[in-house]
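Q: What structure does this chain adopt?
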Amino acid sequence: MAQITDVNDTINLDAAAVRNRVLVLVALIALTPVALAVVELPTRSASINFLGSALSITLSTDSLLLVLMPVLTIAGTDWVLRAHPDVLAGEIPYLFPFWVAPAFAALTIAWLLTRIAAWPLWIAVLLLGVIAIATLIFAEYVGLSPYARGYAAARLALTGVSYAIAFALFTLIYSSRERSVITATLTTLIAFGLALDLMAPHIIGLGTAATFSLVVGLLVGQANWALNYWNISNWSAGVILLAVLYVMIGLAQQHFQDRLTRSVLIEFGVVAAIAIFIAWQLAGVR
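A:
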């Protein structure tokens, strides 16, 4: 009990410093697309052979934004998390799994901004995006200690925003209509990264979490590969891929908690059925 009180007190004492770090970070992230929007950079194209096929890559302001925002978010998230008492005490020797969700949130925002032409919508997406990133970073910080006050709420926020990011990225990737070797690979990496964070590797062990996350990522990637042969809408594909990710992560988490019973399997089966029904209803929406 004393340990729990000490952790809560320490985190509360550091709350102001952490809040300041997060505000500095989100301000920098918000200014990055604004600065790039007023700068005109030359566009360059490069071509490489990938698995025997020619692949063209266009380097422009948009591609710079897609790289720069996630990189800034990763560096800033690491900076914030290193102020956590458990990290300072050496109890959490690795932080890279906790960069994933904020980095993918930044990637989602950057990708959406490159597709939006109307300035009011562009600004609204940017504001909502930086709020989501700030929420994720706070959730990652509090979620590092299972004894901290607000741990349950932080994990709930992290889970909800992570699944929203997954749906957005899965839909964007599928809508690109690129070759399966590209879209399935990207989908696998995203599913693996988000699953690794949601598995709480600092609690169940990094090796175990990484193994289960890799299986989840491969299953979602294979689902994307299969969907590329099925002419469905982008929204339908996003819903189905999200359902696969949710069910696989949920089953793994229930396994770790020794709660994998028949009723749990029925529950996830119902979720999958609902997802298929929603995808069917969205089949004609492009």
